[in-house]
Amino acid sequence: MASSVNPTVRRRRLGQELRKLRELKGMTAEEVAERLLVSQSKISRLENGRRSISQRDVRDLCSVYGVEDHRIVDSLMQMAKESRQQGWWHAFGDIPYSVYIGLETDAASLRVYEGSLVPGLLQTPNYASAVTEGSWPEATTADVERRVQVRMRRQERITDPENPLRLWAVIDESALRRVVGSNAIMREQMEHLVEFSMRPHITVQVLPYSVGAHPGMYGKFSILEFHDPQDASTVYLEGITSDLYLEKPNDVQAYSVMYEHLRMQALNAEDSRRFILKVAEDWATATEDGED
């Protein structure tokens, strides 16, 4: 199978098609689960693309839904086969946010709000390493290196010369002021932010302390949008032990409106660059003064 196949997206699309078939049949997830002698949660996870789905699962579900067109069944079976392939991220072992990576890899645009750190797609290797070490105290050196490698590989989406990810990042001033690693690492990170913010497909806005209370104070979030209209926009909320993916139109709309408020309250792109450069100078001065 071609390497361009994204198993996460295939699984997601397959789940959407299976949900449509169930709804056309007029059945609830609970009724389907009873027919197949499985849990209702399994049906729900198959439909939302959060669980691996086998060709046997597809065959059984199509039988319950009375699908007689072999072309439809064969198409769904092929999607199931593709969905069980491994994405590039599987080579790095158990990555807790692998579902998100799969979505990010296929996304057309990403809007992200970060309140305490620089977004992963805009981190330098040194900053990423320091973030991982600080947020995961029990991690081994190998664990840290693996996470950093994954983060750097993810960044290929925004450096792809032919199909770069459209990235819009609103970053709270706190992320620019908190010492992560060292003053020298922070200076390097600020200069890196400025450099990438000058690319036409990347917008970086700073939300300064002077704004006061704002909608993003409830926590960080990301909104992913896709090229294919069949793929619903998704809000991603990262957790400690589990993540949350919101796809209902009302949920996505609520977060989209909140993001617009954040963009309006933040400094514009040019003023944000000047602000970050000033912060970089502050970090440079601190380094020269031996505060590292």
From TrEMBL:
The protein's name: Transcriptional regulator
Cited Pfam families: DUF5753, HTH_31
A GO MF term: DNA binding
InterPro entries recorded: Cro/C1-type_HTH, DUF5753, Lambda_DNA-bd_dom_sf
Residue stretches making up the HTH cro/C1-type domain: 18-73
Domain of life of the native organism: Bacteria
Gene3D superfamilies reported in the protein's UniProt record: lambda repressor-like DNA-binding domains (1.10.260.40)
